[in-house]
Amino acid sequence: MKTTYQIDPAHSGVHFSIRHLMIATVRGSFSGLKGTVVQDPDDPSATTLEAEVDVNTINTNDEKRDGHLKSPDFFDTAQYPVMTYKSTKVTAGDGADFTIIGDLTLHGVTKPVTLNVEEVSEEITDPWGKARIGATAKGKLKRTDFGLSWNAALEAGGAMLGDEVKIEFDIQLVKA
After folding, report:
1. What DSSP state is assigned to residue 159?
2. Structurally, how many domains does the chain consist of?
């Protein structure tokens, strides 16, 4: 039997990391993640995920950098304030792990992105009587595939920013 869960924005987030100056990793996050998971424990391939993030919630712990990331050089949040992810295929793995292939729409571009889901919890009842589950999903994308191509050449060679972005969703879901 299918069960519908809503993403709990207060206890969920999207995190990312990217190489900077070819020597270090810069991390950031988005808050305000919302969406729906419809889970079918008898048929994991029938599970669906739809999620949405307000790109203006970006936080890299540097206000000036966050402002630049919101600008037309990067996310252009005035024109593209939301990114979305919608599953197209779910494949069960070992135990509670599974893989989700879905369409990520970011900066006006839609491309497939694969998420590896792990650490899926058992359903629990919280102190307020609501049923909840949690999970972590990880993936990678190339920012230039989504039109996020701003960069600067380094004097010694190479580029200021890497192209590969690692993403991680930590989500807590509440049964609808």
Report:
1. B
2. 1
